[in-house]
Design the sequence.
């Protein structure tokens, strides 16, 4: 067996996939993007690639590409005062580190597991943080949340809020939830849901994903190492990808593990077939590097089978805070093009930073995460530029999942420069539900398709998700000052209008 360190430890709607494109506006606000990008162009913290440099420069020279994020009245025109007050209060609370720390300690404590106190805390959580970041307790409620978003021009990525599964019974239960997502989605307005989200860790036991990742890493080291269960796939690793997780040659899968793998393949196949019948794309979430190789394997082998006729059904996720992200994206897209497989990717900055750094350190290796936040920004922008150029040429699709204002402005500038509006059904921006509202509304006002990542499920079931998000997005929550400032500005304007 390989030596491993195991670190501690999302649905709805039938659309004809993005067939109704939304034409870009022909006029744009006069807000200059020069100040938004000057610091990035002038002084990157590490050598940027030529592609990224041209990407940033494009935003400076394209006068019509400005993204208006200053007019609070326009941005929040569709948001009720009650909702604006609630969102402002929650976002201000989550920006205070000690408040988040206290909330996580209370929810994880024994006192919270049962009794009157637990019921009171659950009720308070449901009316505040849960209401802000989750779409509802069941499919029907989530559907209403989707419809409300759709009325103001946004779409939804509904996420069945389950966490990791460790045995087949749990995987089977989770699969039913994902399948129910696709079925229930048919009752919602056309194109109001952009993706069904799936966590491979919810439909394949974690231990098996760890074993598969070990075996895949060893095969990367030794191409003669045979994996009889492996199907056709796109490249999973790059030369710079970390392999330290697997310290010695792993044993082959046992008969029981091979049986579990067959069951996992059947679950994913059934979900892909249901999505294919509904013409609903399936977006696979990314996880930490301990299990990501197996997740990429499942994603790519499924994409080869189901992605046809320039219509990606299966999308993968690239976490650009990893140093090998750009190289892996290039290798996968090149291989997909060679095979004639239309490939879609979601680009995110990523999570699990603490886990990744500690794991690498335990093996005596440098962290696989970029050394600075600016390096991560550069990587995300560079990958965005690369994918925008691809879809401008009619190849592939991309979801730019970002809360970063500068990345949003750069992507808008690049999209306008390339004329991506002509094929904008292949481009989607995305933010977490309840966060970065100004960016979401601003992008939508500019004519782009924008989705909100919307977890749903009973409060008890979604609580682990909320705790994980709170820990992963601690920096993001603390850095949400731009949204908070705009919310205060708009609330003050409405109060003044009401009084005078």
Sequence:
């Amino acid at each position: 067996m390989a030596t491993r360190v195991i670190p501690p430890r999302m649905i709805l709607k039938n659309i004809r996939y993005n067939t109704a494109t939304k034409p870009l506006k022909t006029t744009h606000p006069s807000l200059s993007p020069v100040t938004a990008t000057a610091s990035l162009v002038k002084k990157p913290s590490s050598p940027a690639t030529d592609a990224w440099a041209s990407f940033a420069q494009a935003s400076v020279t394209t006068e019509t590409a400005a993204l208006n994020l200053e007019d609070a009245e326009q941005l929040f025109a569709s948001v009720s005062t009650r909702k604006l007050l609630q969102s402002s209060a929650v976002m201000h609370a989550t920006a205070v580190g000690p408040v988040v720390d206290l909330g996580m300690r209370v929810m994880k404590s024994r006192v919270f597991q049962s009794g009157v106190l637990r019921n009171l805390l659950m009720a308070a959580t449901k009316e505040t943080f849960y209401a802000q970041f989750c779409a509802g307790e069941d499919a029907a409620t989530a559907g209403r949340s989707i419809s409300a978003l759709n009325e103001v021009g946004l779409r939804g990525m509904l996420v069945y809020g389950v966490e990791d599964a460790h045995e087949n019974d749990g995987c089977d239960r989770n699969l039913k939830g994902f399948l129910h997502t696709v079925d229930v989605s048919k009752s919602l307005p056309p194109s109001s849901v952009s993706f069904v989200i799936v966590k491979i860790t919810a439909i394949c036991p974690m231990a098996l994903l760890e074993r598969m990742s070990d075996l895949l890493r060893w095969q990367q080291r030794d191409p003669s190492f045979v994996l009889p269960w492996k199907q056709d796939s796109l490249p999973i690793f790059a030369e710079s990808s970390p392999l330290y997780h697997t310290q010695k040659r792993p044993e082959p899968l046992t008969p029981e593990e091979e049986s579990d793998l067959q069951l996992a393949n059947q679950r994913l196949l059934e979900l892909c077939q249901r999505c294919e019948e509904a013409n609903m794309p399936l977006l696979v979430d990314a996880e930490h590097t301990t299990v990501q190789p197996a997740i990429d394997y499942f994603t790519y082998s499924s994409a080869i089978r189901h992605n046809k006729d320039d219509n990606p059904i299966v999308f993968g996720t690239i976490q650009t805070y990893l140093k090998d992200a750009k190289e892996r994206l290039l290798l996968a897209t090149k291989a997909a093009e060679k095979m004639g497989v239309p490939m879609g990717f979601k680009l995110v900055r990523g999570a699990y930073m603490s886990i990744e750094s500690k794991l690498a350190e335990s093996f005596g290796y440098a962290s696989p995460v970029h050394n600075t936040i600016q390096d991560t920004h550069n990587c995300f922008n560079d990958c965005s530029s690369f994918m925008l150029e691809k879809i401008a040429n009619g190849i592939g699709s991309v979801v730019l999942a970002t809360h970063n204002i500068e990345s949003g402005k750069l992507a808008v500038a690049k999209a306008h420069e390339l004329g991506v509006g002509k094929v904008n059904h292949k481009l989607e921006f995305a933010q977490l539900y309840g966060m970065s509202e100004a960016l979401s509304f601003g992008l939508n006002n500019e004519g782009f398709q924008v989705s909100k990542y919307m977890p749903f499920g009973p409060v008890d079931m979604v609580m682990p998700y909320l705790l994980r998000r709170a820990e992963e997005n601690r920096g993001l929550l603390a850095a949400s000052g731009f949204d908070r400032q705009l919310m205060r500005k708009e609330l003050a304007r409405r109060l003044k209008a009401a009084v005078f």
Q: What stands out?
A: Residues 34-69+159-460 form a domain with the TIM Barrel fold (CATH 3.20.20.220). The chain is about 55% helix and 10% strand. The first strand starts at residue 155 and ends at 160. The two ends are 74 Å apart (CA to CA).
